[in-house]
Design brief:
Layout lengths: L8 H10 L5 H15 L4 E3 L12 E3 L10 H5 L14 H4 L8 H4 L2 H15 L6 H19 L19
Antiparallel strand pairs: 1-2
């Protein structure tokens, strides 16, 4: 039996679009479950000094050309996404001058941790999707513990401990 996401992404995005408050648990669930369900990171290859080098020059994207979204991209309703945010860290976007959704901005530290895990696992080299997901799940458990959140069942059993027992 396939495990379903604990939090509905479409319903979450609708709440954000309406300006309704969202909990840290909802933010975590939607961001982490979305990345896991898509099966890999949101990255694009950019030339280094104008040259594409096999396996290098990959940069994280909130939303990539192949339709993948990083954890933060998972949270943003389509109506609020703007390609102009690409390349800016979440710490800059949550400042009022960017008109980032206030319901998300209030979770700045959590957003920063989610972005850091995604981006650090991708760095500038292409990591095979299965290796990325394994690392992402492991680091997501650390985020959950750090912020007092529960781990969604979709993270599975990586270390012999049940996700429900956390």
């Amino acid at each position: 039996m396939q495990i379903q996401p604990r939090t509905d992404k479409a319903a979450f995005r609708a709440k954000v679009l309406r300006g309704e408050p969202v909990t840290a648990q909802e933010v975590f669930d939607v961001a982490v479950e979305g990345v896991i369900l898509q099966g890999g990171p949101s990255i694009e290859q950019e030339p280094m000094a104008g040259i594409f080098i096999e396996g290098q020059g990959f940069v994280s994207k909130y939303r990539s050309e192949n339709g993948r979204e990083c954890g933060i991209g998972q949270l943003l309703p389509d109506e609020l996404y703007d390609r102009e945010i690409e390349g800016y860290p979440i710490e800059v976007l949550v400042q009022e001058t960017w008109h980032f959704p206030a319901s998300l901005s209030r979770h700045g530290a959590l957003l920063t941790s989610i972005q850091a895990v995604h981006d650090n696992l991708t760095s500038s080299y292409h990591t095979p999707d299965e290796d990325f997901i394994r690392g992402f799940k492991s680091k997501a458990r650390w985020i959950a513990d750090s912020f007092g959140l529960t781990v969604p069942p979709l993270l599975g059993n990586l270390s012999g401990a049940s996700a429900d027992a956390r």
